[in-house]
């Protein structure tokens, strides 16, 4: 199982709603609860639901707020890249026992992959090989 320096990295496991909220904050940079509420995809959620989730996310160090004109404005403390990397690493570790080859093999067998995507994957593999040589 290839773990690397995983012990040094923080772990971000976000649920669906948390990830949707983070996407809004990454897109806007900073937002009030009502801004997040208006921009969320899917079913309309109550203001209090989003406010509670943002408070919990703040406790976890994912977001921070500033008070502006008696309104909380939230901003992300972690980047999309950090969360993506962590969640992808977690998926590979938990579902495929750390085997990237098994994870990629599974995705290639179970998902539609366009010709362009296959070419892009081949290009990425070639680039990675060159770095290792």
Structural summary, described in words:
- The protein is mainly α and 133 residues long.
- It has six helices and three strands; from the N terminus they run αβααββααα.
- It has helices at 16-28, 33-39, 47-59, 80-96, 100-110, 115-132, and strands at 31-32, 63-68, 71-76.
- A hairpin with a 2-residue loop joins β2 and β3.
- The relative contact order is 0.13.
Distance between the termini: 22 Å
Shape: elongated
Strand tally: 3
- The proportion of strand residues reads 5-15%
Series of secondary-structure elements, N-terminal to C-terminal: HEHHEEHHH
> Helix tally?
6
Instruction: Provide the helix percentage.
Output: 55-70%
> Ranges with pLDDT <50 over ≥5 residues?
1-6
Strand order of the largest sheet: 1-3-2
Largest sheet: 3 strands, antiparallel
In short:
The chain has 6 helices and 3 strands, in the order αβααββααα. The protein has helices spanning 16-28, 33-39, 47-59, 80-96, 100-110, 115-132; strands at residues 31-32, 63-68, 71-76.
Give a topology summary:
Elements: H1 16-28, E1 31-32, H2 33-39, H3 47-59, E2 63-68, E3 71-76, H4 80-96, H5 100-110, H6 115-132
Helix pairs in contact: 2-3
Task: Name some characteristics of this structure.
single chain, 133 residues, mainly alpha, three-stranded antiparallel sheet, 3 strands, disordered N terminus
